[in-house]
Design a protein that fits this description.
The structure is a single chain. By secondary structure, this protein is mainly α. The longest helix has 30 residues, at 93-122. The protein contains 12 helices and no strands. Helix 5 packs antiparallel against helix 10 (225-236).
């Protein structure tokens, strides 16, 4: 494991620790208090997202590395970023946090299967990589559940300290992610232009399509605007850091990390638009 992979793993642990600092047991019990919104959200994140990603990369006929990278990204829904975007967009923040809480548990088991499916679909027999699903579950558990649990324990025992640490942790994790993306781009500079074009179109399309379908399914389920906006954000905003960490740290292939890295930059643009729409709607309907 090289230095970059170790730094990325540490960054992910910091991010998940920061998420734990913002979670309470109530965020998990709330899952049973609003089952319809939670079910619609998880349907989009866990089931529809990987299906849409597979159809998209198949139709677009992108490079194998990009296709697998997009599938890894689709296997990592939500994350702390979606909570912040939902809050800024005047969405239902408690619903966003509850979906993140649910995803932190569910994706431990779904990520290995989505990745295994992607590898079998897009790699030739002589390129095939066999992943140990149990080992992958354990690795994801270590970098997700343990730091989240530690963060929640601190939140419960020292809430004031947890609140004061939340912002610095987010800033630190964002800074590390930015440096990792820059390092990845520099390392792959010879191949980066065609990769950027393919990954840019594919991840932007994934982002916009899943956001649109998330909002549509929420409205079909007759959820209110704040809940629909939240599910739209949760469906379209993925955990790019986790996807990069899986590509580089578990699959040991930095080419698979390019699509998640490009996505991590694109999502700030689309997120800004969604935040603007959400704030405008909130101001027009006080």
């Amino acid at each position: 494991m090289d230095l970059g992979t170790i730094i990325l793993a540490v960054a992910l642990i910091i991010i998940m620790f920061g998420m734990g600092l913002s979670l309470t047991l109530q965020d998990f019990t709330r899952l049973f208090q609003r089952p319809k919104a939670i079910i619609v959200g998880l349907l989009n994140q866990i089931i529809l997202l990987p299906i849409i990603a597979y159809v998209l990369v198949s139709v677009m006929n992108v490079d194998t590395d990009i296709a697998i990278g997009v599938m890894i990204l689709a296997a990592c829904p939500g994350g702390p970023t979606s909570n912040l975007i939902t809050h800024l967009a005047k969405g239902d923040t408690s619903l966003s946090v509850s979906l993140t809480a649910a995803n932190s548990l569910i994706t431990i088991f779904t990520i290995p299967f989505v990745i295994d499916f992607a590898l079998k679909q897009f790699l030739n027999a002589n390129e095939m990589i066999q992943i140990d699903k149990l080992q992958t579950v354990i690795q994801i558990f270590v970098v997700v559940i343990i730091p989240v649990t530690v963060g929640m324990a601190i939140k419960r025992s020292k809430p004031t300290f947890a609140d004061s640490m939340s912002k610095p942790v987010k800033i630190a994790s964002a800074a590390v992610l930015f440096l990792v993306i820059i390092a990845l781009v520099l390392k792959k500079k010879e191949d980066i232009i065609p990769y950027l074009q393919q990954a840019g179109f594919a991840t932007l399309a994934l982002n916009l399509i899943t956001m649109s379908i998330g909002f549509a399914t929420a409205k079909i389920a007759k959820l209110n605007f704040a809940q629909s906006l939240t599910i739209s954000i949760e469906s379209g905003i993925q955990n790019g850091t986790m996807a990069i960490a899986i590509a580089s740290g578990i699959l040991l292939n930095e080419n698979y990390a390019i699509a998640p890295a490009v996505y991590s930059l694109i999502m700030f643009l689309t997120s800004g638009i969604v935040i603007g729409i959400g704030m405008k709607m909130a101001n027009s309907n006080p």
